[in-house]
Amino acid sequence: MPGLTPSGRRVTICRGLDKNLDTNQLNDAFKIALMIGDVRLMEEIEGVAGDVYILDASIVAPSHLGKISPSALKKFFICVQEAYPVKLKEVHVVNSTPLIDALFNIIKPFLKEKMRNRIRFHADFTALHEYVPKELLPVEYGGTSCSLNEVNNAWIKKLEEYKDWFNKQDSLIANESLRPGKPTNYDELFGIDGSFRQLSID
């Protein structure tokens, strides 16, 4: 979203539109989030004192639990928590339901304790306004900024501008023989396969 919070943080909103998501689409959502992060790192004019993520859970359905790839989920959180230089300071889950509580219990093992403590759940937008100024929220969330559709269209255009850059990144490969110390074992780092259909959850 345009503008920064009083503490200098950038607000990012993630909202799905289609309940009929498959595994590939969910994985694409993780990738797009990181692509937007890459562009932001190159285009942020002023310093940012961290990120505030608002995750809209309005379309989350029980069927999604079996479509989430644990491997993709682990890779995403490793990137966010270990590699991404802008720290995630707040996460607000809006339109939360008991299903989201169950999903959060699945995700917990991938999160550091500090990150878990930064996540708040809101059944509606009223409580969200206590943390994020209305002038930084879209009209759909009771704010006074631009609409989510406007922001989405602007980001689609911006990502298209970076098409050549992203294509170049896809061709880059790390030479582990040049890494100081022990080479990274990616099987150990990302070694989770399958989906949550295979997990037994107490």
Automatic annotation (TrEMBL):
All copies of domain CRAL-TRIO, residue ranges: 1-149
InterPro entries: CRAL-TRIO_dom, CRAL-TRIO_dom_sf
Gene3D superfamilies the UniProt entry points to: Alpha-tocopherol transfer, CRAL-TRIO lipid binding domain
Organism domain of life: Eukaryota
Record-level GO cellular component terms: membrane
Single GO term (MF): phosphatidylinositol bisphosphate binding
Protein name: Alpha-tocopherol transfer protein-like
Organism: Trichoplusia ni (Cabbage looper)
Gene this chain is encoded by: LOC113493304
